[in-house]
Amino acid sequence: MADRYLTYAELLDILGKDRLERLAPAKPGARPAIMRAKSQAEGLATSWLNGRYGDQLPTTPTETPQVLKEQIAEVTIYKLASATGDVVAPELKERFDAAVAWLRSVGSGSADLGLESRPAVDQSTPQILANKSRRDLVFGNGGLEDW
């Protein structure tokens, strides 16, 4: 799995090795589980941000704003905790909910990543004016009388 928004080392730095190892003790399967949770978190972030930023979204960790990395880290730790099937601590759930709310607000435009957004799409309704007169009739024989 390629790193899109943050690296494993950055994840450890943001969350703290102790905090992460409480959920995924250092054993052979721990790192793949952590990376799977990180990949899910990055996918969630992309789904919320893609509509607004599209091609402007970062594709490497060096391009990613720190605030986005921190929110993805919070989603990652929640995904990791919920994957065990145990009850997730209320603090983790609250932090996850806050991170998702922030992603939604960035996606909707009420918060910002500091990246260039996609150009605005013209949402106006076209105005069409149609006039009907006798000289507008192209066909004869009364075929367009109702036109």
Please tell me about this protein's structure.
By secondary structure, the chain is mainly alpha-helical. It has a domain at 8-108. It has helices at residues 8-15, 17-23, 30-53, 66-83, 90-108. α1 (8-15) crosses α4 (66-83), α3 crosses α4 (66-83) and α4 packs across α5 (90-108). The model has no long low-confidence stretch (mean pLDDT 82).
Percent of residues in helices: 40-55%
Q: Any idea what the shape is?
A: elongated
Strand content: under 5%
* Backbone CA Rg: 26 Å
Low-confidence region ranges: none
N-end to C-end Cα span:
62 Å
Layout of SSEs?
Layout: H1 8-15, H2 17-23, H3 30-53, H4 66-83, H5 90-108
Helix pairs in contact: 1-4, 3-4, 3-5, 4-5
Top keywords for this entry?
single chain, 5 helices, about 50% helix, mainly alpha, about 150 residues
